[in-house]
From TrEMBL:
TPR repeats: from-to residues: 266-299, 387-420
Region feature (Disordered): 175-256
Keyword presence, Endoplasmic reticulum: yes
GO MF assignments: misfolded protein binding; protein-folding chaperone binding
Annotated source species: Myxococcus xanthus (strain DK1622)
Domain J: residue ranges: 99-170
Keyword Signal in annotation: yes
SMART domains, A to Z: DnaJ (SM00271), TPR (SM00028)
Keywords carried by this UniProt record: Endoplasmic reticulum, Signal, TPR repeat
Name of this protein: DnaJ domain protein
Amino acid sequence: MPQLDAARLQLTAEEGSVLQLVGRVERIDQVLARSKLGEPRTIAVLLALRAKGAIVPARVVPRGAPAPVVDAAMAEEVDLEPERKKEIIELERSLDAMDHFAVLGLKPGAPASEVKQAYYNASRRFHPDRYFGKNLGSFRARMERIFRRLTDAHNVLMQPDKREAYLRANPALAQAERAAAPPPPSAPPPSAPAQHLLTPEPPPVHQLSSPPPAPRPPVASSGPSSIPPPSRPLAPPPDDGASEARRAERQARLARHPYLARTGRLAELIARGKAAIASGDWERAYHDFHQVQTMDPKNREVALLLVKARRGHDSQRATIEVARGREMERHGDTHGAMSAYRLACSLDDRNAEAAWRCARLGNLLGQDAAESRGLAQRAVELEPDKVEHQLTLGKVLLDSGSKKLAKRAFEDAAKLAPDNAEAKAALKKLRWTF
Protein backbone atom coordinates (compact mmCIF):
# COMPACT_ATOMS: atom_id res chain seq x y z
CA MET A 1 0.00 0.00 0.00
CA PRO A 2 1.95 3.12 -1.17
CA GLN A 3 0.03 5.54 1.07
CA LEU A 4 0.70 3.49 4.23
CA ASP A 5 3.08 5.06 6.76
CA ALA A 6 4.79 2.00 8.31
CA ALA A 7 6.84 4.12 10.72
CA ARG A 8 3.74 5.73 12.16
CA LEU A 9 2.09 2.37 12.76
CA GLN A 10 5.24 0.99 14.46
CA LEU A 11 4.97 -2.43 12.83
CA THR A 12 6.99 -5.35 14.15
CA ALA A 13 9.20 -7.47 11.92
CA GLU A 14 6.53 -10.19 11.75
CA GLU A 15 3.83 -7.67 10.87
CA GLY A 16 6.03 -6.15 8.15
CA SER A 17 6.72 -9.55 6.54
CA VAL A 18 3.03 -10.48 6.53
CA LEU A 19 2.07 -7.06 5.19
CA GLN A 20 4.43 -7.56 2.25
CA LEU A 21 2.68 -10.86 1.48
CA VAL A 22 -0.69 -9.11 1.56
CA GLY A 23 0.53 -6.72 -1.12
CA ARG A 24 1.59 -9.56 -3.42
CA VAL A 25 -1.40 -11.96 -3.19
CA GLU A 26 -5.17 -11.59 -3.35
CA ARG A 27 -6.62 -14.07 -0.85
CA ILE A 28 -5.97 -14.92 2.79
CA ASP A 29 -5.36 -18.60 2.02
CA GLN A 30 -2.45 -17.55 -0.20
CA VAL A 31 -1.02 -15.48 2.65
CA LEU A 32 -1.29 -18.46 4.99
CA ALA A 33 0.36 -20.72 2.42
CA ARG A 34 3.33 -18.41 1.83
CA SER A 35 3.91 -17.23 5.37
CA LYS A 36 6.78 -18.82 7.28
CA LEU A 37 5.19 -18.09 10.65
CA GLY A 38 2.64 -20.90 10.54
CA GLU A 39 -1.13 -20.58 10.30
CA PRO A 40 -1.98 -19.70 13.95
CA ARG A 41 0.73 -17.02 14.22
CA THR A 42 0.00 -15.61 10.75
CA ILE A 43 -3.70 -15.25 11.59
CA ALA A 44 -2.79 -13.45 14.83
CA VAL A 45 -0.53 -11.05 12.91
CA LEU A 46 -3.25 -10.41 10.32
CA LEU A 47 -5.67 -9.51 13.11
CA ALA A 48 -3.09 -7.14 14.61
CA LEU A 49 -2.59 -5.46 11.21
CA ARG A 50 -6.33 -5.05 10.83
CA ALA A 51 -6.59 -3.50 14.32
CA LYS A 52 -3.87 -0.99 13.39
CA GLY A 53 -5.68 -0.12 10.17
CA ALA A 54 -2.91 -1.47 7.96
CA ILE A 55 -5.23 -3.85 6.09
CA VAL A 56 -8.94 -3.92 5.42
CA PRO A 57 -10.81 -7.12 4.55
CA ALA A 58 -12.31 -7.18 1.08
CA ARG A 59 -16.04 -6.56 0.94
CA VAL A 60 -16.65 -8.75 -2.11
CA VAL A 61 -15.66 -12.41 -2.04
CA PRO A 62 -15.86 -14.44 -5.28
CA ARG A 63 -18.48 -17.14 -5.04
CA GLY A 64 -16.21 -19.81 -6.44
CA ALA A 65 -13.30 -19.10 -4.14
CA PRO A 66 -13.13 -21.54 -1.22
CA ALA A 67 -12.84 -20.00 2.21
CA PRO A 68 -9.56 -20.73 3.98
CA VAL A 69 -9.78 -23.28 6.74
CA VAL A 70 -8.47 -21.90 10.01
CA ASP A 71 -7.79 -24.84 12.27
CA ALA A 72 -7.88 -23.40 15.76
CA ALA A 73 -7.82 -26.90 17.25
CA MET A 74 -4.21 -27.38 16.17
CA ALA A 75 -3.22 -24.38 18.28
CA GLU A 76 -4.92 -25.76 21.41
CA GLU A 77 -2.47 -26.47 24.23
CA VAL A 78 -2.97 -30.16 25.08
CA ASP A 79 -0.74 -33.11 25.97
CA LEU A 80 -0.68 -34.49 22.42
CA GLU A 81 1.91 -34.39 19.68
CA PRO A 82 1.06 -32.23 16.61
CA GLU A 83 0.95 -35.29 14.35
CA ARG A 84 -1.44 -37.02 16.76
CA LYS A 85 -3.68 -33.94 16.93
CA LYS A 86 -3.77 -33.72 13.14
CA GLU A 87 -4.67 -37.40 12.81
CA ILE A 88 -7.55 -37.07 15.31
CA ILE A 89 -8.92 -33.91 13.69
CA GLU A 90 -8.82 -35.32 10.14
CA LEU A 91 -10.44 -38.61 11.13
CA GLU A 92 -13.23 -36.92 13.09
CA ARG A 93 -14.05 -34.64 10.19
CA SER A 94 -14.25 -37.59 7.80
CA LEU A 95 -16.45 -39.85 9.95
CA ASP A 96 -19.77 -38.86 8.39
CA ALA A 97 -18.54 -39.62 4.87
CA MET A 98 -17.01 -43.03 5.73
CA ASP A 99 -18.66 -46.43 5.70
CA HIS A 100 -18.11 -49.03 8.43
CA PHE A 101 -15.24 -50.70 6.58
CA ALA A 102 -13.46 -47.40 5.86
CA VAL A 103 -13.75 -46.28 9.49
CA LEU A 104 -11.80 -49.35 10.54
CA GLY A 105 -9.32 -48.87 7.69
CA LEU A 106 -10.49 -51.98 5.82
CA LYS A 107 -11.48 -52.74 2.26
CA PRO A 108 -15.17 -53.52 1.62
CA GLY A 109 -15.91 -57.17 2.28
CA ALA A 110 -13.18 -57.70 4.88
CA PRO A 111 -13.87 -60.85 6.94
CA ALA A 112 -14.76 -60.84 10.62
CA SER A 113 -11.22 -61.76 11.68
CA GLU A 114 -9.82 -58.62 10.03
CA VAL A 115 -12.64 -56.50 11.50
CA LYS A 116 -11.80 -57.75 14.98
CA GLN A 117 -8.07 -57.06 14.63
CA ALA A 118 -8.64 -53.62 13.07
CA TYR A 119 -10.99 -52.63 15.90
CA TYR A 120 -8.47 -53.75 18.50
CA ASN A 121 -5.67 -51.74 16.85
CA ALA A 122 -7.84 -48.64 16.46
CA SER A 123 -9.06 -48.85 20.07
CA ARG A 124 -5.50 -48.76 21.35
CA ARG A 125 -4.94 -45.53 19.40
CA PHE A 126 -8.20 -43.63 19.90
CA HIS A 127 -9.59 -44.73 23.27
CA PRO A 128 -9.51 -41.60 25.47
CA ASP A 129 -8.82 -43.65 28.60
CA ARG A 130 -5.34 -44.38 27.27
CA TYR A 131 -4.43 -40.85 28.34
CA PHE A 132 -5.05 -41.00 32.08
CA GLY A 133 -4.01 -37.82 33.86
CA LYS A 134 -3.27 -35.89 30.65
CA ASN A 135 -4.83 -32.65 29.47
CA LEU A 136 -6.80 -33.49 26.31
CA GLY A 137 -9.01 -30.41 26.15
CA SER A 138 -11.48 -30.60 23.27
CA PHE A 139 -9.64 -33.64 21.91
CA ARG A 140 -11.24 -35.86 24.56
CA ALA A 141 -14.69 -35.29 23.01
CA ARG A 142 -13.24 -35.85 19.54
CA MET A 143 -11.67 -39.17 20.57
CA GLU A 144 -14.86 -40.28 22.31
CA ARG A 145 -16.82 -39.65 19.11
CA ILE A 146 -14.25 -41.57 17.05
CA PHE A 147 -14.31 -44.48 19.49
CA ARG A 148 -18.12 -44.64 19.45
CA ARG A 149 -18.03 -44.72 15.65
CA LEU A 150 -15.41 -47.49 15.70
CA THR A 151 -17.53 -49.49 18.14
CA ASP A 152 -20.66 -49.12 16.01
CA ALA A 153 -18.79 -50.28 12.91
CA HIS A 154 -17.33 -53.25 14.79
CA ASN A 155 -20.69 -54.33 16.24
CA VAL A 156 -22.42 -54.19 12.86
CA LEU A 157 -19.72 -55.99 10.88
CA MET A 158 -19.17 -58.72 13.49
CA GLN A 159 -22.85 -59.77 13.75
CA PRO A 160 -24.08 -61.60 10.62
CA ASP A 161 -27.67 -60.34 10.74
CA LYS A 162 -26.67 -56.70 11.24
CA ARG A 163 -23.95 -56.98 8.62
CA GLU A 164 -26.37 -58.43 6.09
CA ALA A 165 -28.89 -55.64 6.75
CA TYR A 166 -26.15 -53.03 6.42
CA LEU A 167 -24.98 -54.44 3.10
CA ARG A 168 -28.55 -54.56 1.80
CA ALA A 169 -28.83 -50.86 2.60
CA ASN A 170 -25.51 -50.20 0.80
CA PRO A 171 -25.57 -52.13 -2.50
CA ALA A 172 -22.17 -50.82 -3.59
CA LEU A 173 -20.53 -52.34 -0.49
CA ALA A 174 -22.43 -55.59 -1.02
CA GLN A 175 -21.18 -55.79 -4.58
CA ALA A 176 -17.62 -55.09 -3.45
CA GLU A 177 -17.93 -57.84 -0.82
CA ARG A 178 -19.12 -60.33 -3.42
CA ALA A 179 -16.24 -59.35 -5.68
CA ALA A 180 -13.75 -59.79 -2.84
CA ALA A 181 -15.11 -63.19 -1.80
CA PRO A 182 -13.11 -66.18 -3.15
CA PRO A 183 -14.94 -68.16 -5.84
CA PRO A 184 -16.54 -71.38 -4.61
CA PRO A 185 -14.65 -74.56 -5.55
CA SER A 186 -15.98 -76.05 -8.80
CA ALA A 187 -17.40 -79.56 -8.60
CA PRO A 188 -15.44 -82.16 -10.58
CA PRO A 189 -17.17 -83.27 -13.84
CA PRO A 190 -19.08 -86.51 -13.48
CA SER A 191 -17.05 -89.44 -14.68
CA ALA A 192 -18.41 -91.68 -17.41
CA PRO A 193 -20.13 -94.72 -15.95
CA ALA A 194 -18.26 -97.93 -16.28
CA GLN A 195 -19.61 -100.28 -18.85
CA HIS A 196 -19.92 -103.18 -16.46
CA LEU A 197 -22.27 -101.18 -14.24
CA LEU A 198 -24.78 -100.94 -17.05
CA THR A 199 -25.40 -104.67 -16.88
CA PRO A 200 -27.20 -105.67 -13.72
CA GLU A 201 -25.42 -108.26 -11.67
CA PRO A 202 -27.44 -111.45 -11.30
CA PRO A 203 -28.63 -112.05 -7.77
CA PRO A 204 -26.75 -114.66 -5.75
CA VAL A 205 -28.21 -118.13 -5.61
CA HIS A 206 -28.93 -119.35 -2.09
CA GLN A 207 -28.93 -123.12 -1.62
CA LEU A 208 -31.04 -124.66 1.10
CA SER A 209 -28.80 -127.65 1.58
CA SER A 210 -25.23 -128.06 0.67
CA PRO A 211 -24.45 -131.12 -1.44
CA PRO A 212 -21.38 -133.07 -0.59
CA PRO A 213 -18.33 -131.31 -1.95
CA ALA A 214 -16.97 -132.65 -5.18
CA PRO A 215 -13.44 -133.91 -5.13
CA ARG A 216 -10.96 -131.19 -6.14
CA PRO A 217 -7.37 -131.43 -7.12
CA PRO A 218 -4.96 -130.85 -4.26
CA VAL A 219 -3.90 -127.24 -3.79
CA ALA A 220 -0.77 -126.23 -1.97
CA SER A 221 -1.50 -124.41 1.24
CA SER A 222 0.46 -123.16 4.21
CA GLY A 223 -2.06 -124.27 6.86
CA PRO A 224 -4.17 -127.27 7.70
CA SER A 225 -7.07 -127.77 5.34
CA SER A 226 -9.48 -128.17 8.27
CA ILE A 227 -9.37 -124.43 9.09
CA PRO A 228 -12.27 -122.72 7.37
CA PRO A 229 -11.58 -119.63 5.32
CA PRO A 230 -12.12 -116.30 7.09
CA SER A 231 -15.63 -115.04 7.04
CA ARG A 232 -16.38 -112.20 4.67
CA PRO A 233 -16.03 -108.86 6.51
CA LEU A 234 -19.00 -106.65 6.94
CA ALA A 235 -19.34 -103.79 4.53
CA PRO A 236 -17.69 -100.62 5.95
CA PRO A 237 -20.06 -97.92 7.18
CA PRO A 238 -20.85 -95.29 4.65
CA ASP A 239 -18.43 -92.39 4.47
CA ASP A 240 -19.50 -89.89 7.14
CA GLY A 241 -17.73 -86.94 5.51
CA ALA A 242 -21.06 -85.45 4.55
CA SER A 243 -22.47 -85.83 8.06
CA GLU A 244 -19.32 -84.30 9.53
CA ALA A 245 -19.66 -81.38 7.16
CA ARG A 246 -23.28 -80.93 8.18
CA ARG A 247 -22.32 -81.00 11.85
CA ALA A 248 -19.59 -78.39 11.29
CA GLU A 249 -22.04 -76.23 9.36
CA ARG A 250 -24.55 -76.41 12.22
CA GLN A 251 -21.90 -75.42 14.74
CA ALA A 252 -20.80 -72.51 12.58
CA ARG A 253 -24.42 -71.38 12.20
CA LEU A 254 -24.90 -71.50 15.96
CA ALA A 255 -21.68 -69.59 16.51
CA ARG A 256 -22.97 -66.86 14.21
CA HIS A 257 -26.15 -66.49 16.22
CA PRO A 258 -26.20 -62.95 17.66
CA TYR A 259 -26.84 -64.06 21.24
CA LEU A 260 -24.18 -66.78 21.22
CA ALA A 261 -21.67 -64.54 19.44
CA ARG A 262 -22.23 -61.78 21.99
CA THR A 263 -21.97 -64.22 24.90
CA GLY A 264 -18.76 -65.67 23.52
CA ARG A 265 -17.28 -62.24 23.02
CA LEU A 266 -18.15 -61.19 26.57
CA ALA A 267 -16.60 -64.35 28.01
CA GLU A 268 -13.46 -63.80 25.94
CA LEU A 269 -13.06 -60.18 27.09
CA ILE A 270 -13.67 -61.05 30.76
CA ALA A 271 -11.14 -63.88 30.69
CA ARG A 272 -8.57 -61.70 28.96
CA GLY A 273 -9.17 -58.86 31.42
CA LYS A 274 -8.71 -61.13 34.42
CA ALA A 275 -5.50 -62.50 32.91
CA ALA A 276 -4.28 -58.93 32.40
CA ILE A 277 -4.95 -58.14 36.07
CA ALA A 278 -3.02 -61.24 37.10
CA SER A 279 -0.05 -60.13 35.00
CA GLY A 280 -0.22 -56.49 36.15
CA ASP A 281 -1.27 -55.11 32.75
CA TRP A 282 -3.83 -52.70 34.20
CA GLU A 283 -4.26 -50.73 30.99
CA ARG A 284 -5.21 -53.83 29.01
CA ALA A 285 -7.56 -54.95 31.80
CA TYR A 286 -9.33 -51.58 31.93
CA HIS A 287 -9.80 -51.55 28.14
CA ASP A 288 -11.33 -55.05 28.11
CA PHE A 289 -13.66 -54.47 31.06
CA HIS A 290 -14.74 -51.13 29.62
CA GLN A 291 -15.80 -52.93 26.44
CA VAL A 292 -17.73 -55.51 28.45
CA GLN A 293 -19.51 -52.80 30.43
CA THR A 294 -20.47 -51.08 27.17
CA MET A 295 -21.98 -54.33 25.84
CA ASP A 296 -23.45 -55.50 29.17
CA PRO A 297 -24.05 -52.51 31.49
CA LYS A 298 -25.86 -54.61 34.14
CA ASN A 299 -22.91 -56.94 34.79
CA ARG A 300 -22.04 -56.10 38.40
CA GLU A 301 -18.95 -58.30 38.49
CA VAL A 302 -17.43 -56.46 35.54
CA ALA A 303 -18.32 -53.08 37.09
CA LEU A 304 -16.27 -54.02 40.15
CA LEU A 305 -13.44 -55.36 38.00
CA LEU A 306 -13.44 -52.13 35.99
CA VAL A 307 -13.04 -50.09 39.18
CA LYS A 308 -10.24 -52.42 40.30
CA ALA A 309 -8.45 -52.07 36.95
CA ARG A 310 -8.76 -48.29 37.03
CA ARG A 311 -7.38 -48.10 40.56
CA GLY A 312 -4.56 -50.46 39.68
CA HIS A 313 -3.61 -48.38 36.67
CA ASP A 314 -3.76 -45.14 38.66
CA SER A 315 -1.67 -46.66 41.44
CA GLN A 316 0.89 -47.82 38.91
CA ARG A 317 1.01 -44.37 37.34
CA ALA A 318 1.36 -42.75 40.76
CA THR A 319 4.39 -44.88 41.57
CA ILE A 320 5.98 -43.85 38.28
CA GLU A 321 5.29 -40.17 38.99
CA VAL A 322 6.85 -40.41 42.46
CA ALA A 323 10.00 -41.94 40.96
CA ARG A 324 10.07 -39.20 38.32
CA GLY A 325 9.67 -36.53 41.02
CA ARG A 326 12.54 -37.98 43.06
CA GLU A 327 14.78 -37.87 40.01
CA MET A 328 13.84 -34.26 39.23
CA GLU A 329 14.37 -33.25 42.84
CA ARG A 330 17.78 -34.90 42.78
CA HIS A 331 18.72 -32.68 39.82
CA GLY A 332 17.45 -29.50 41.50
CA ASP A 333 14.14 -29.14 39.62
CA THR A 334 11.98 -28.67 42.72
CA HIS A 335 9.00 -27.18 40.89
CA GLY A 336 8.94 -30.04 38.38
CA ALA A 337 9.22 -32.53 41.23
CA MET A 338 6.33 -30.82 43.02
CA SER A 339 4.14 -31.17 39.94
CA ALA A 340 4.99 -34.86 39.70
CA TYR A 341 4.17 -35.44 43.39
CA ARG A 342 0.87 -33.58 43.05
CA LEU A 343 -0.11 -35.70 40.06
CA ALA A 344 0.78 -38.87 41.99
CA CYS A 345 -1.42 -37.73 44.90
CA SER A 346 -4.35 -37.08 42.57
CA LEU A 347 -3.95 -40.49 40.90
CA ASP A 348 -3.67 -42.50 44.12
CA ASP A 349 -4.79 -41.06 47.44
CA ARG A 350 -3.44 -44.21 49.16
CA ASN A 351 0.17 -43.55 48.18
CA ALA A 352 1.74 -42.44 51.47
CA GLU A 353 5.12 -41.58 49.93
CA ALA A 354 3.54 -39.27 47.38
CA ALA A 355 1.57 -37.45 50.10
CA TRP A 356 4.63 -37.11 52.35
CA ARG A 357 6.97 -35.86 49.60
CA CYS A 358 4.38 -33.41 48.32
CA ALA A 359 3.78 -32.03 51.84
CA ARG A 360 7.50 -31.78 52.64
CA LEU A 361 8.44 -30.05 49.37
CA GLY A 362 5.40 -27.79 49.44
CA ASN A 363 6.32 -26.62 52.94
CA LEU A 364 9.91 -25.93 51.81
CA LEU A 365 8.70 -23.93 48.80
CA GLY A 366 6.25 -21.94 50.93
CA GLN A 367 3.19 -23.11 49.02
CA ASP A 368 -0.37 -23.55 50.29
CA ALA A 369 -0.09 -24.36 54.00
CA ALA A 370 -3.52 -25.99 54.19
CA GLU A 371 -2.64 -28.34 51.30
CA SER A 372 0.69 -29.28 52.89
CA ARG A 373 -0.98 -29.90 56.24
CA GLY A 374 -3.64 -32.14 54.73
CA LEU A 375 -1.09 -34.16 52.75
CA ALA A 376 1.20 -34.56 55.77
CA GLN A 377 -1.74 -35.75 57.87
CA ARG A 378 -2.68 -38.22 55.14
CA ALA A 379 0.86 -39.64 55.06
CA VAL A 380 0.81 -40.14 58.85
CA GLU A 381 -2.59 -41.84 58.74
CA LEU A 382 -1.47 -44.20 55.98
CA GLU A 383 1.90 -45.04 57.53
CA PRO A 384 1.98 -43.91 61.19
CA ASP A 385 5.19 -45.83 61.93
CA LYS A 386 7.35 -43.67 59.64
CA VAL A 387 9.45 -41.15 61.58
CA GLU A 388 9.88 -38.84 58.56
CA HIS A 389 6.11 -38.57 58.19
CA GLN A 390 5.70 -37.47 61.83
CA LEU A 391 8.56 -34.97 61.51
CA THR A 392 7.10 -33.41 58.35
CA LEU A 393 3.70 -33.10 59.99
CA GLY A 394 5.30 -31.43 63.01
CA LYS A 395 7.15 -28.91 60.81
CA VAL A 396 4.05 -28.06 58.78
CA LEU A 397 1.98 -27.58 61.95
CA LEU A 398 4.70 -25.51 63.59
CA ASP A 399 5.02 -23.19 60.56
CA SER A 400 1.25 -22.73 60.48
CA GLY A 401 1.18 -21.71 64.18
CA SER A 402 -0.32 -24.92 65.64
CA LYS A 403 2.37 -25.44 68.29
CA LYS A 404 0.44 -27.86 70.49
CA LEU A 405 -0.34 -30.18 67.60
CA ALA A 406 3.23 -29.81 66.34
CA LYS A 407 4.59 -30.85 69.74
CA ARG A 408 2.38 -33.94 69.71
CA ALA A 409 3.72 -34.90 66.25
CA PHE A 410 7.33 -34.47 67.38
CA GLU A 411 6.62 -36.55 70.49
CA ASP A 412 5.25 -39.34 68.30
CA ALA A 413 8.40 -39.14 66.20
CA ALA A 414 10.56 -39.35 69.34
CA LYS A 415 8.66 -42.44 70.48
CA LEU A 416 9.40 -44.13 67.16
CA ALA A 417 13.07 -43.07 67.19
CA PRO A 418 14.25 -41.90 70.64
CA ASP A 419 17.69 -40.95 69.31
CA ASN A 420 16.36 -38.81 66.46
CA ALA A 421 18.21 -35.51 66.79
CA GLU A 422 15.65 -33.50 64.80
CA ALA A 423 12.75 -34.61 66.99
CA LYS A 424 14.73 -33.95 70.20
CA ALA A 425 15.75 -30.47 69.03
CA ALA A 426 12.18 -29.53 68.11
CA LEU A 427 10.83 -30.72 71.45
CA LYS A 428 13.55 -28.83 73.33
CA LYS A 429 12.61 -25.66 71.47
CA LEU A 430 8.91 -26.10 72.25
CA ARG A 431 9.31 -27.23 75.87
CA TRP A 432 9.17 -23.84 77.53
CA THR A 433 6.23 -22.48 75.53
CA PHE A 434 3.55 -24.42 77.45
